[in-house]
Amino acid sequence: MLFPLLRPALFALEAERAHGLTITMLAAWGGRGRAPVDDPVLHGTVAGLHFANPIGLAAGVDKDGHAIGGFFGLGFGSVEIGTLTPVAQPGNPRPRIFRLAEDRGIINRLGFNNGGIDVALPRAAAAERRGMLGINVGANKDASDRVADYVNGVTKAAVVADYITINISSPNTPGLRDLQHGSALTELLAAADAARQAPVRRPLFLKVAPDLTTREIDGIARAAIDHHVDALIVSNTTLSRPALRSANAKEPGGLSGAPLAVLARARLADFRTATGAALPLVSVGGINSAEEAYARIRAGASLIQLYSALVFEGPGLPRRMATGLARLLRRDGFTALGEAIGA
Prior knowledge:
The chain has one domain: TIM Barrel (Alpha-Beta Barrel), CATH 3.20.20. The protein has helices spanning 3-12, 15-29, 68-73, 117-126, 146-157, 182-195, 214-226, 261-275, 290-298, 308-313, 317-331, 337-340; strands at residues 44-46, 49-51, 55-57, 78-84, 97-100, 105-108, 132-137, 163-167, 204-208, 231-234, 254-257, 281-284, 301-306. It is globular and about 50 Å long. The protein contains 12 helices and 13 strands. By secondary structure, it is of the alpha/beta class. The strands form 3 sheets. It has an 8-stranded parallel beta barrel, surrounded by 4 helices. Strands 5-6-11 form a 3-stranded antiparallel sheet, with no helix packed on it. It has a two-stranded antiparallel ribbon with strand order 1-2. Helix 5 runs parallel beside helix 6 (182-195) and helix 9 (290-298) packs across helix 11 (317-331).
């Protein structure tokens, strides 16, 4: 209820500064006094993990895991932190986050700015969890061996995470998206699959870009199945630019939020077809209501994730979305979330 009053003040700040202030406030609150959204109709299992509800926080919001408890307190069934790299790095020069208020979108070119995985993991291990914790790992910009960086991340994250996400789809690290194709992808997935076996085998998710051809989608789907990936996150930000009205529309970087919705829906359908529904799919991009979340689930998503919609809809969105989704499921006669997936 307070967000409409606070939003003008937050929007008056430079976007990254407002983001940092939000993380600080959520970290200080820690989610105290808020029970998780736990309606039986929303329960689901993905990769052997039980999710109290399918609404997740996408990676990139809380990169270093400062506010895990606070985000769970907002009602999320899962929180994914990162992207974390083996060595701390500052990312790209500021300014690097741009609001597209008229379009309800965001352009960012952050570039995997984070304090390093060794600093974040103890914080994540100590956090109060009320759902599934994902850790998203990546390679340093100047890495001489990017596969080795991913092996490092997977090995370390396996000690703390409920699931691990390999991020090879950010558009803001030069050459990173090349790892989505051919022998580069198969080499990476084979190494990551081997790395997550010890000390305990954790589910492995793969986050892909929306800017892919049909042939590339088919290749990723085959490689993911062959190398025992447990779920695909579809998708990251886009380099494409639909018709936009905002003054910042021409800024370079990855576009997210409402303008990504059409492309994200199309990629969800494409990967559903390419995998033959053999892999769970996590839909990301332009999801800003219970109705849109429900549409993605009925199109084949087992889980959904939010990022940019929080900027425009406020911190009450996850709880509103979860309760609204439960209502929609019951309205249409579903007694469990799994019955609606791909219905």
